[in-house]
Amino acid sequence: MRVYVLNGPNLGRLGTRQVDVYGMTSYADLVSMCVETGQELGLDVVVRQTDAEHELLGWLHEAADEGAAVVLNPAAWSHYSIAVRDACAMLRAPLVEVHISNIHAREEFRHHSVVSAVATGVICGLGVDGYRLALRHLASRAAVEGRSA
Ligand code: DQA
């Protein structure tokens, strides 16, 4: 089963960006961690990051067309992009929204995500481990639903 792990703006800077908030794991390490977790779970994991909103929209359209599950960290777009939310609403397989930090314990403008209402579930505040947990959930969900994982 193909799962897209999609990351929004500035997440390519992980490891050097506000390490007190986002931790020391680099984006390259995050990619390896997701791919390795996918291998353990029998998932074909494709990890991508972009700072260009139209590119993320294209990837979400691709996932919708393929009926693929998505783990999405929309980053700052979480808080205001109706376009990202609308693209997420087109997905046919589960969508897990992930935030590395606990957005509810931070500035007020981060407390609301416009994506959450169209996500299957949300993980936030568990660091990069949230991505692993999201993949684990998608694999067990696919097993329960009888899809090949
Ligand atoms: C984030 C939280 C967002 O508020 C922020 O804009 C990000 C990362 C997180 O993973 O904690 O870029 O989505």
Automatic annotation (TrEMBL):
Tell me the NCBIfam families matching this sequence: aroQ (TIGR01088), PRK05395.1-2 (NF003805), PRK05395.1-3 (NF003806), PRK05395.1-4 (NF003807)
Identify the residues that bind substrate: 73, 79, 86, 100-101, 110
The protein's UniProt keywords, in alphabetical order, are: Amino-acid biosynthesis, Aromatic amino acid biosynthesis, Lyase
Q: Give the molecular function GO annotations.
A: 3-dehydroquinate dehydratase activity
What is the protein name for this chain? Answer: 3-dehydroquinate dehydratase
InterPro entries per record:
DHquinase_II, DHquinase_II_CS, DHquinase_II_sf
Q: What Enzyme Commission number(s) appear in the record? A: 4.2.1.10
To which pathway does this protein belong? Metabolic intermediate biosynthesis; chorismate biosynthesis; chorismate from D-erythrose 4-phosphate and phosphoenolpyruvate: step 3/7
**Gene behind this protein:** aroQ
Spell out the HAMAP family in the cross-references. Answer: AroQ
Q: Which organism is it from?
A: Micromonospora eburnea
Q: Which SUPFAM superfamilies match?
A: Type II 3-dehydroquinate dehydratase (SSF52304)
Protein family membership? Belongs to the type-II 3-dehydroquinase family.
Which chemical reaction does it catalyze? 3-dehydroquinate = 3-dehydroshikimate + H2O
Gene Ontology terms describing biological process: amino acid biosynthetic process; aromatic amino acid family biosynthetic process; chorismate biosynthetic process; quinate catabolic process
- EC class name: lyase
